[in-house]
Amino acid sequence: MSRKKIFKLPYIGIEDSDDDCHFLQGMKAESSAIIKIQNPVLQYSADPDKYMAFHYSILQVIKIIGEGHMFQKLDIFSKEPYTTGMNSGEFLQRHYDEHFEGREHAVIYSYIVITVNGQRKLNSNENQKKQASLKEKVDKVIQVLDSSGFNPTLFQKKDIDTLVLQLLSMDFKRSNIALDNIKPDNTHIGMGDYAVKCLSLIDIDRIDLPEQVSPYVERNDNEAIKGFPVDTMSFLYGTPDYDTIVYNQIIEIPKQVAEIQRLQIKRNRHNGIPDPENDLAVEDIQQMLEDVAKNNQLVVNSHFSILVKAEHKNLKKAVNSIENALFLQGIIPSKNSYNQLELFRAALPGNGVELQNYDKYLTTSDAALTFLFKEALPVSEPAPKGFSIRFTDRQGIPLSIDPADHSRDIGRINNRNKFVLGPSGSGKSFFMNALVEQYMLYNMDVVIVDTGDSYSGISSYFNGKYITWKDDKPITMNPFIINKQEYNLEKKDFLVTLIGLVWKGADGQLSQVESDVISNVVSSYYESYFNGNDEDWIYNAPIKELEEHLQNNGSDIAPLFEEAKTSLLNNFSKYNWNNEDYYSVLGVNYGATAAEIKTSYRKLAKKYHPDKNGESSDDIQFHRISIAYQVLSDPNQKKGYDLARNIDKVSLYDDGLNLDQSDSVELSNIYHGILKRETISMAKHFNVQSLSFNTFYDFSLFMIPRIIDKEEISFDFKTFRYVLRKFYRGGEFQSILNEQADSSLFDERFIVFEIDNIKEHKILFPIVTLIIMDVFIQKMRNRHQQRKTLIIEEAWKAIASPLMAGYILYLYKTVRKHNGEAIVVTQELDDIVGNAIVKDSIINNSDTICLLDQTKFKDNYDAVSALLSINQVEKRKIFTINNLDNKENRPIFKEFYMRRGAIGEVYGAEVSFFQYLTYTTEKPEKLAVETYVRNFGSYPNGLEHFSKDLKRSGLSTSAFFTFINLIGCPVNESAFSFLKAYQSKFGHLAVTTLGKHLAKKEIDISQITGGSNQSA
């Protein structure tokens, strides 16, 4: 009988006198500090620079701890069952949790152990100095790790005890750790039902390593991921049938001067004996010494070992997988690892001191660090505001992602908008359905513009409003109905865009003049409506306000002023002044006094009087002088004459400065009265009583000709009038912009507008899309407490035009301010490449890019990369979509890439069977599901019965869909009996045969269902 030995721990205890730093004290007087870390390089990060950054960070750590210390890194791969940790009461989410519950997956735990080697027995004072020195180094190391993204946590006594027990049991999944007997032999260590194999990567007698090493290697096993950078030890992820893997990495830093001198002596010794092997040894040593001298490297002793725990029957398979993977990288592990217990003990924290020289090899720090494991698996993101969605990581485990709040808080994105690109068959619909389902779990309003009936199931599940365009029941809106508070510049711009769209079409463009004319008409239209019933303001309004009002409504006020001048002159119409300049006739200046006028008259009268001057007299001149004096000497006639003489010089803008004060006031009063009259006349002539396209059209026909005449501009009024008439009363599309939408839409949380029926209609498609977007904006403004999202499927193409560019920018700007997001979804590459509107208005305002399988676009991906600003690192990630060997034991699923800001990750859209039934866009499947939902009154009840009946039927899922569609009702007892009989007779062809018999009317459905459509 073999003699049993007690397994002695290599520790004397834990020094915890310092509250900040607890040390594990070894049997050989060594002290160790343990730091839990998270490797900063995420699996499939695709960035070589991150592996190099890791390398240089740890190199800095090695130099900090220095001579006489040991650096140990432990990376544990633990296979653990997934548990959601949640208790969702929501039906689909509960089944989502059940779908993944218990699924085995890898969890990685990483630790760094810093050990100061034992010395002679120290007195109390010397020991305190040693601990203080170690603590100082640990503090510096933690600073480096923290700044490099390792998220370090220094372990305290309880954590240290737990880690030691976990390593002793090779069990990291259980909270209650139970130690089993350890039974070592030459090939492995027994642990109850499990066995542990310790593989040393180095055989000191024959070191088989690659000639060149790097912090990462490139995968070339798959054309799609050729050149993809991964960790040197990334093959450990794929180890089959293991329970726990511990990768033990130890780097010991000896006294550098002494070690270099030893190498020099060894080199000289080899050099003294000519021999090919000695020559190679001299060359290797010389190369190492040069690297140390030139690159300031350290000489280190290294040890790397892999400990694999698996059931006895699976151990060989797991070990063979690891050895094969190492061989492919040029590494042949030691075949002489008979010291299994030594290797196992060396994996305990700080216990590398027990390693013998034959399990360590001398190299430079740079070379040693390339073998460190650098990767971490993705974990769920924080959700500080409670908003998160779930998709799977690359191994098929749900992760929580906060694509909205946390991503903004950390500066990864500035807006929540998304752009989704995926060709047909890439899983785009499932991804979007999964996103919408999870959005609806929160206080979120969802409005979808769809053209493919992709959301009917999820809409029915949430009792949403599903509005489908039908020719006899079109989608109608009255975008003109707003109150005075809602009328603002944005609303005005929207209406200008809408009118432009109706007039010019989606591909047209408004000139600046056309845009300004329509804008003026819109302004006048609402001013008339909001102020049209109130004429009191007219009577109290000053001249300036009346002028502005008339001008804004297309009136030319110049003729009105001329009318006032004429009216003033009419008071003196009884006089006939013959357009003579009487002041010049009398030879006096304008403004001469009565005395001056009289004196001048007498002088000239004497000169030209016919009785006094004889032959020198001038009857005509004398008559002129007499008339002039008659007018200018009569105060009333003179006033009229002066007014007539000056009024032509009075302009609309000089306030009558050329007139006497009394005349100026009188002219102003007359002009003011005419302005009031004209304003009242306009108000009576066209008073907007209601808001609709009809009244706007009437108003525009009144206003536009006035504006054209006043401004003397070119405007195609006839075409405008003709094209817009289609949407006017009696026109082909009279209801679309005149009948108000269902007011309940503004309170609905989930609305789908299905407009597939008009997607080829060049007139209606863009207009309906635009007014739906306006409905969303109104909801957004009025529903302050809700999150909001607008999802535009292929309908975005209807609005991606120069005419719509401004409105799209406005939408994206506005949605950000109201806790919302816009999501544009497309599948056609040609639609986005080269489309400036897509890039400038949509993509540039979408900080989140979601890409489904891009393989179909690969040959033209430079154009996509340029459009979406995808760099080489992100492109590598994108082409791993659906190209990894990660599909075993998983139902069919599709992966997608989500980039937030500059960096993206690949996730899986894997769903439960119940979610599949809800999301499916396959017509036969939808029809069968709807049959159950309709029969059982709700989606949860219908899906539960569908699942139960499917299992009971023994049919494949596709055959069951067919069977339900054949009989047109859920399966009842009669149908089950009939089906069993057919299965007994026709086997797997039972449903196919039944379909043929029904088609030939050889049997009747009532024979199958017993005349009942009630489920069993």
TrEMBL record:
This is Conjugation system TraG family ATPase. Residues 581-645 form the J domain. Gene3D superfamilies: DnaJ domain (1.10.287.110), P-loop containing nucleotide triphosphate hydrolases (3.40.50.300). PROSITE patterns: DNAJ_1 (PS00636), DNAJ_2 (PS50076). The lineage of its organism: Bacteria, Pseudomonadati, Bacteroidota, Bacteroidia, Marinilabiliales. InterPro entries: CagE_TrbE_VirB_cntrl_dom, DnaJ_domain, DnaJ_domain_CS, F-pilin_assembly_TraC, J_dom_sf, P-loop_NTPase, P-loop_TraG. It comes from Sunxiuqinia elliptica. One of its GO terms (molecular function) is ATP binding.
